[in-house]
Design brief:
Number of strands: 19
Largest sheet: 6 strands, mixed
Radius of gyration: 40 Å
CATH class of the largest domain: Mainly Beta
CATH architecture of the largest domain: Sandwich
Order of helices and strands: HEEEEEEEEEEEEEEEEEEEH
CATH topology of the largest domain: Immunoglobulin-like
Strand order of the largest sheet: 2-9-8-4-5-6
Number of domains: 2
Strand content: 35-45%
Number of helices: 2
Structural class: alpha+beta
Shape: rod-shaped
Length: 297
């Protein structure tokens, strides 16, 4: 009896080793598993398409299970009747007419679906190998209009303080705001997000900057507000800023003692012309009053 038990034990080991050798030679029956979500950023109320791509290497497919987080919501088993099955999940609406062993289409997605989605693929006998692929879906709500740009004044000169504000309609996630003065990014303040009653956020940002002559190098001054939500939303509002001076704006030069003077101004030219005229008058007066001794009788 003991010899028979030993024989059975040895045969079992041989079978297991043979199965492992066959698996190592023929492969697992599953490879190149990946999950893509299109679009990765989807607007609330729109649809999302999930594509689970894999190669079975000749092994039959046992099942494909779909998860949002850790909860299964859809399963495809080709040997069952019907092959497709839906599990209850709040907010998930699977379109059964276009969902199968590799694709799942979700209709009318809501914010609660943002997060990890997983497809779990299992090969049939003899390997029953299981592979898993995960990707992220983000559900968004975009601003319904471009940003609103406000400036304290409409005319500014070098040395003036420019105060401005830019705000966006509510969105999820909240927008990021960037200020551009002509083509240069300006401002050190951060974008502030303000919550709304429906779980959205409207964004705002302030700008306080002193204008320099270099800002007018192109002959005009244009302030722009750029609002962005990820890579799917980008809108710009702009405000041309005029100068109250009709003449060209002179460069401001700082003297060594710290005093600021204006070069090329009309007042400086008047002073120079006055000194020249006074010099000419002094010379004419001296010449007129000079009488040589030889002419005196």
């Amino acid at each position: 009896m003991a010899d028979k038990e030993k024989c059975v034990y040895v045969n079992a080991i041989i079978v297991l080793l043979t199965a492992q050798i066959c698996a190592s030679v023929t492969g697992t029956g599953l490879r190149n598993l990946s999950l893509s979500i299109k679009p990765p950023w989807v607007r609330r109320g729109q649809e999302a398409q999930l594509h689970c791509q894999y190669e079975m290497e000749g092994a039959p497919l046992y099942s494909v299970k779909w998860y949002r987080g850790t909860l299964e919501f859809y399963r495809y088993s080709p040997f069952e009747n019907p092959p497709a099955k839906i599990f209850p999940f709040t907010g998930i609406k699977v379109d059964m007419t276009v969902s199968n062993a590799t694709h799942v289409t979700l209709r009318n997605v809501g914010f609660n679906l943002s997060g990890n989605f997983t497809c779990e693929v299992t090969a049939d006998a003899p390997s029953f190998y299981t592979g898993v692929a995960t990707n992220v879906l983000t559900v968004v709500e975009l601003p319904h209009s471009p940003p609103t740009l406000w400036t304290e004044h409409t005319k500014y000169d070098p040395g003036d303080i420019l105060r401005a504000n830019c705000s966006t309609p509510p969105s999820k996630p909240g927008a990021t705001i960037t200020f551009l003065l002509n083509s240069m990014t300006v401002g050190t303040e951060s974008t502030v997000l303000h919550p709304t009653h429906d779980n959205l956020h409207w964004a705002s940002r302030d700008l306080i900057i002193q204008l320099l002559p270099s800002h007018y190098s192109t002959g005009q001054l244009i302030l722009r507000c750029l609002a962005e939500v990820g890579t799917i939303y980008s809108e710009v509002s702009q405000a041309p800023l005029e100068s109250s001076r009709k003449e060209p704006i002179p460069e401001r030069v700082t003297s060594p003692n710290g005093a600021a003077t204006l070069t090329g101004s009309i007042e400086t030219r008047r002073q120079q012309l006055f000194l020249i005229i006074m010099g000419i008058l002094v010379i004419l007066t001296v010449i007129h009053s000079y009488q040589p001794n030889s002419l005196i009788r």
